[in-house]
Amino acid sequence: MWHDGCPRLAAVNPHARAAGLRPRMRLADARALLPDIVTVAGEPQADLRLIEAIAGWCDRYTPWVAVDAMGGALADDIERACSTGGFGGDAGLLLDVTGCTHLFGEGEAGERALLADLVTRLARRDLSCRAAMADTAGAAWALARFAERHADLFCPSHGQRDALGSLPVEGLRLDAPILDTLLKLGLRHIGDLYPIPRAPLARRFGDRLLNCLDQALGTLAEPIEPRRIPPAFRTRLAFAEPIGRAEDIAAATSRLLAALCRQFEQAGVGARQLEIALYRVDGSVDRTSIGTSRPNRDNPKLMKLFEERLGELDPGFGVELMILAAPEVEAWSGTQDVLPDQNAPGIASGGDGTIDLADRLALRLGSENVVRLLSRDSHLPERVQVAAAVSSKPAAAGAWRRVASLKGARPTRLLQRPEPVEVTAFVPDDPPSVFHWRRHAHRIVRADGPERIANEWWRPRSDGTHPPAGTLPPVRDYYRVEDDDGGRFWLFRDGPYQLAANGQPTARWFLHGFCA
Amino acid sequence: MPVISPSAFASPHPRIANDPATLVPAALREKVRRLERANSVGRNGKTAAVPLGIAAIDALLPDGGLLTGALHEIEAGPGPSGRVASHDGAALGFAAHLLSRFGPGTILWCRRPTGRFDAPPYASALSSWFDPARLLMVTAHRDEDLFWAMEEGLRCPGIAAVLGETRAVDPTAGRRLSLAAEKNGVPALLLRAQPAPPQSVCATRWRIASAPSCSTPGLKDVGAARWRLELRRNRFGTPSAAETPSWLLEWNDETHCLAVVPQALHGSSGTHFEERLVG
What we know:
The complex is a heterodimer. Chain A is of the alpha+beta class. Chain A has helices at 14-18, 27-33, 44-58, 78-83, 107-124, 137-146, 160-165, 176-184, 198-205, 207-217, 246-267, 299-310, 334-337, 354-365, 381-384, 399-406, and strands spanning 2-4, 6-8, 65-68, 92-95, 233-243, 269-280, 285-296, 319-331, 370-375, 385-389, 413-424, 434-437, 440-454, 475-483, 488-493, 509-514. In chain A, strand 14 (475-483) and strand 15 (488-493) form a beta hairpin. Chain A starts with a strand and ends with a strand. In chain A, 35% of the residues are buried. By secondary structure, chain B is of the alpha/beta class. Chain B has a domain at 38-210 and 231-247: P-loop containing nucleotide triphosphate hydrolases (Rossmann fold, 3-Layer(aba) Sandwich). Strand 9 of chain A pairs antiparallel with strand 5 (135-139) of chain B, so a sheet runs across the interface.
């Protein structure tokens, strides 16, 4: 049940359906049909969680799983479906099992075996489901929802025209207005539409009806967007008996990895990311992934990375299936890397194990915490240095020295956020004579400056807008100062010295760095 | 009035070496030293020690330089007035100078952010000493992670040197780092923003404070960076006449050269310093 100004039904059980109740019906109308109806408040978010969990579990059959949110076409926006109550009993899952059924048997027998396996495994977990298989998503959708109770839900190849003929037109995933008109015209079954010429149908109902019909019958392609992009490379290992010991899981991972690395070698690629999924006997799935800084298909090295992560996996009551997938691969340039690269003396050449070290560190500390520093052409000191992933192209040799030579003296440490300081200056435009920072007074003995650095007017502001034309960009005047204790600091004043209307200077002073 | 430093008369070579009474202990010490550092000598053709480029300091260090397979500590000391140093810019500069002596290869720089006032090293300035493209920066939010990352780095063949910025004092971690450095012949440096209680494991401990620079005569500009350097621990080196040998160094950013400031020039370095020396 959900609310849309008035309470409406979100989902109905078979008895209610037999009594004529339909989803989206107003509760008042439903009460008129069936006075002693029992209603429960809908929980679309909980429904979504459940169906997502089942979808994850269905990855065991095919990587191509989509959540079919609305009782209609695939919802492009599951959140919206939730908010409008579309996530009721009509939600379902679409599995594209093309090329996956041979694991269960040859030809049609394999397809039937897969379907039966799916239904029995779900039934074992007390989930009643209606699963249909057909050439098209539309036909399977209609069969699962509108076929007779004990009908065979398997539609043989090219048999969808016959299978759909006797089903009600609701099975075409049509919008409510079209559906109402069809029912008023007496077109109750999908088969009733077959003999009608297409042109009058298109004129009367627009493209929508014909598209739905063609998609169900297979004359029009219907792309299914998978819940997760299926990886190009994956290997699976099913166990006769559930395994649970850490050593067994490690051994199985090693076997999967060996198989996957062979696939990589044939395809000439290396993995940038690997994901291992443990399908547990209780139906839940546990996943973990590793990333590498450059394409890698070195089995022992990848295994070493996995060893750090396998401890986090919880086998629960046992693991019956493991799938190792490579969601991200790149063309492999393996043997090229060991040649010494004269132009990049840094960590570009990874043959010395630095890249592997970076991977290991990133795995434990997070990849954002293991970086190399790139220089950027900018006047603003805080923008010159940019942290980049280890896999990115390193700064060219001497790039930093060139950047440094163009600028004045720079501090060895730069504060992430400039800190406001209080200053005393004899002459407004001069460097200050004393500044207070962290409750210490620093008497300035020597000073260099100012070095004026203007904001980069050609760059949009942080909110995306451009400064209006004709305005001067804000400037900073930097001073390198030395206090009586020999400490050297980098101070700036944000703007030229001016007095505001109340007689107070407008510019403030900041501490931005510490010099050697 | 001429300014005379207390260490001005110290000979660069220790006197005890000539004393027959200490000859045996010296030979014994040498033997023990060889036993202790059996592993640290020569890996991948690397030399066991790298000279700092300053003759007065190198004379005191074992094998005429900074040992590659050892742990070295660098801490920021108080300035001439004895006031707590407000930052470790000078210590960082000295650490960068040491790092520039080791190479080629990647420099692993591990640091633990200090919260709101975090001031990471600025590569633009580090380029005076070495190419920042060689840097691999690691941020650890726990000291265990920091020491772990350093140890991993020491074991990696492509790493030239490992530096850790931390305030933590952990004798076990220090010992582990020292052993890993010795085994792999890769130097480990610990950079401390504040003086820490001494640990026995490090081969050398340096204390650096920024010292007043020398302006151009007649001007009040900031001159070349000057540091007061103290060698507070020198485990395998030659004992010095002074208890803690100390030097005033000047870093020339144009010639990229670190040199001891001649004693005669001390006077121009600042009034406070002069008073301290005389008094």
